[in-house]
Every structure is written in structure tokens, then in C-alpha cells.
């Protein structure tokens, strides 16, 4: 169903979707390193921590194909509220246990709930953004998302990872996000009159975009679940390691809007290739820099910005090419790709670190971004 919206309504809808996702991203950015540090404190191996972290993206993969039909049947803002409520309950439940097995189950369920919020919000943003400014709008969204993700580890550095308090903070963020959704629900795009499209068909329709999301999620999963372990192995304190993780996500905060602006004026695919190559370079540099903290943090800042640029370019191009139920399905396909990448990032990086130390972290990330740059370049040349 197509509804003509004023510019003011478009801006309100975009702002609400961005605010909701930013608040919720703090919960995600808090929970990944929080649970990794809890498990590491109990003597759990890096590989096992990576497997535990993979349960959230596995939940994303399992649940994403069902969201287009749920949104068509119940409405986008209703699905978002249901996802946020379930996320809050699951986070509170995590605070009541320290069982490795319980974390596996709860993180699987959390991934199934989390993904609904991102599918809804990214559909809102791309549907409401105008083509000539989409790169900048998506850049603002990515910037705000990075603020949320970066604030999570920073919050953890302030309150610590022991006790129930960090879990309570995560749940409170979910309830705040519900308030935002209720405030802007009137501006949500309506796709209830359209036939749901299967997200699985997007593997043929947009393979490079799905690969880009998968690669970004690999990076994010590796960073959120194992960068604190990388930092501790390099001799950093818990506070410095978690704060350094925040710096990587804050790089997104500063540079996603300029990256989006550049893509509005040049080529989204060219910018994607550049971002992938710069991220690979940053990964190669990291292991030799922790003893030179200012330089280490500076590289992390750019490293985070260019990794996030991959996501910004993929999401912008999706909005350029698809609308309506196709866009909902595309965002669900993105969520599946994100889940696959996140599911691989933690275990592969954890195993690499167990055998190769901190060099395994850097080498794995660098290789996957070089492969992404090659794919985007080759597909672009083929038109």
C-alpha cells in the first residue's frame, strides 16, 4: 500500500526509527562483551566463548525468514514492540545465571528477538529516505547505530561486568526503545497490503550486497566477542580493552555520514571497495600497536569507520534498487546474511586466536575484507 507522506512525516519516521535502534544497539553492544568477560572470568576457552557468542547470530538466521510475513500480518511497529519486550525479558534472565549452557539457549532466543527490531527499522529508513540523499540518511543511521554499539562497551567499562547491574541496564534500554516506537508509530511505512516476498531469493538478486553484510557481521562478531580477549592478551587492562572497543565503534560515529555523502556523489560500489581495503590494512597493523596506545586507538578509529562503511554502502544500494515488500524481504535477507557472518566471526576468530594468538585475530579479519574488496570490484566490472 503506497501512502504519500510529507517531508516532515518522513523526517519524523526516520528520526524515530534511528532513535529506537540506537537505544537498542547499546543493549547489543553491552551484552556481547559482557557475556564474553563473564565466561572468560570463569576460565572458558576463547574457542568456546566464540561458539557461545555464535548463538545470537544463529537465532537471527533461523528467525529472519519469518519476519516479512509477521510484518505483513501484524504491522511493523507492533512487531518491533514485541521484539523489544522479548529482548528485555531474555536479558534479565541472563543476569540470573552463569551457566554456559543457559547462555547458549538464551543467546539463541535473543538473536531471534533482536532481528525483528533491525528489519523493521531499516525498512522504515530506506522506505522513507529520498534517493538523492539516501547515502547520507543511511550514514546518519549507521552513525547513530555505532553510538549505541560503542556506548555499550563504554557503559560496561564504567559499571563493570560482575553482578546484575549491567543486565538491568540492557533491559531498561529495551523499555526506552519501546517508548520511542510508540511515539512515532503513526509514521511507519505500511506494507500490510502487499504480498510477502521470500528473503531467500535475494541470494540471486543481490549477492554482493549480502556478502558485504556477511563480512561486516563477521567483523562485528569478532570485535564484540573477542576483541576484549585480544586486548587482555596484548597486556591491556579490562577497562582499557573495553574502551578501545568503543573507539572502534566511535570511528563509525564520526565518518559514516561523510562516507554516505561520498557515495551519493560517486559510486556506492567504488566506496565499498575502498572501505574493504582500508579495513584489511587496519587489521594487519593492529597486533603491533597495543604498546603505543595513541597510535593503536587512532588505527582502531579508522578501522571501525571503514568496516562500518561496508554496511552503509550495502544498505544504501538496497534502498536504491528495491521498495515495498521487496525491501522488507531484502532487509530480512540482510539479517540472514548478518546472522551467518556473526555466527562465523566469533568461532573462526576464536579458533584462530587459540592456535595463532593475536595474529589469528588480525589475519582472519584482513583476509575476509580483501576477499570482499575483490568480489565487489569484479561484480562492479561485470555491471
UniProtKB/TrEMBL annotation:
Keyword annotations of the record: Cell membrane, Membrane, Transmembrane, Transmembrane helix, Transport
GO MF, one annotated term: transmembrane transporter activity
Cellular localization per UniProt: Cell membrane
Stored PROSITE patterns: MFS
Residue intervals passing through the bilayer: 12-35, 47-67, 79-96, 102-125, 137-161, 167-188, 200-219, 225-250, 271-289, 295-315, 327-348, 360-378
Membrane topology of the entry: Multi-pass membrane protein
Protein name, entry field: MFS transporter
Keyword Transport attached: yes
Pfam hit, one: MFS_1
CC per GO annotation: plasma membrane
Amino acid at each position: 500500500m503506497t501512502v504519500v507522506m510529507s517531508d516532515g512525516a518522513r523526517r519524523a519516521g526516520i528520526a524515530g526509527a534511528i532513535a529506537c535502534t540506537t537505544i537498542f544497539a547499546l543493549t547489543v553492544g553491552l551484552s556481547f562483551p559482557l557475556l564474553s568477560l563473564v565466561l572468560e572470568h570463569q576460565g572458558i576457552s576463547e574457542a568456546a566463548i566464540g561458539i557461545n557468542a555464535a548463538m545470537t547470530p544463529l537465532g537471527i538466521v533461523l528467525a529472519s525468514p519469518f519476519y516479512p510475513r509477521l510484518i505483513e500480518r501484524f504491522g511493523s511497529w507492533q512487531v518491533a514492540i514485541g521484539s523489544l519486550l522479548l529482548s528485555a525479558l531474555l536479558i534479565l534472565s541472563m543476569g540470573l545465571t552463569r551457566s554456559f549452557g543457559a547462555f547458549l539457549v538464551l543467546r539463541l532466543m535473543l538473536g531471534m528477538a533482536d532481528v525483528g527490531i533491525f528489519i523493521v527499522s531499516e525498512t522504515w529508513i530506506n522506505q522513507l529516505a529520498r534517493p538523492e540523499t539516501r547515502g547520507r540518511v543511511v550514514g546518519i543511521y549507521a552513525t547513530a547505530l555505532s553510538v549505541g554499539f560503542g556506548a555499550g562497551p563504554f557503559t560496561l567499562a564504567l559499571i563493570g561486568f560482575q553482578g546484575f547491574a549491567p543486565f538491568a541496564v540492557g533491559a531498561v534500554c529495551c523499555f526506552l526503545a519501546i517508548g520511542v516506537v510508540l511515539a512515532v508509530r503513526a509514521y511507519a511505512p505500511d506494507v500490510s497490503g502487499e504480498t510477502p516476498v521470500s528473503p531467500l531469493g535475494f541470494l540471486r538478486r543481490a549477492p554482493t550486497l549480502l556478502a558485504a553484510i556477511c563480512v561486516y557481521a563477521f567483523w562485528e562478531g569478532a570485535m564484540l566477542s573477542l576483541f576484549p580477549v585480544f586486548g587482555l592478551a596484548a597486556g591491556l587492562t579490562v577497562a582499557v580493552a573495553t574502551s578501545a572497543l568503543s573507539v572502534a565503534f566511535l570511528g563509525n560515529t564520526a565518518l559514516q555520514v561523510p562516507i554516505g555523502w561520498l557515495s551519493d556523489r560517486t559510486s556506492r560500489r567504488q566506496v565499498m571497495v575502498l572501505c574493504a581495503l582500508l579495513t584489511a590494512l587496519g587489521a594487519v597493523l593492529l597486533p603491533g600497536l597495543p604498546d603505543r596506545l595513541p597510535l593503536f586507538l587512532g588505527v582502531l578509529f579508522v578501522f571501525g569507520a571503514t568496516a562500518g562503511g561496508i554496511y552503509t554502502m550495502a544498505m544504501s544500494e538496497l534502498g536504491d534498487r528495491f521498495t515495498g515488500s521487496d525491501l522488507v524481504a531484502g532487509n530480512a535477507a540482510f539479517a540472514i546474511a548478518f546472522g551467518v557472518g556473526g555466527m562465523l566471526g566469533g568461532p573462526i576468530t576464536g579458533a584462530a586466536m587459540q592456535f595463532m594468538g593475536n595474529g589469528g585475530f588480525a589475519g582472519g579479519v584482513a583476509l575476509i575484507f580483501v576477499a570482499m574488496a575483490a568480489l565487489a570490484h569484479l561484480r562492479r566490472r561485470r555491471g
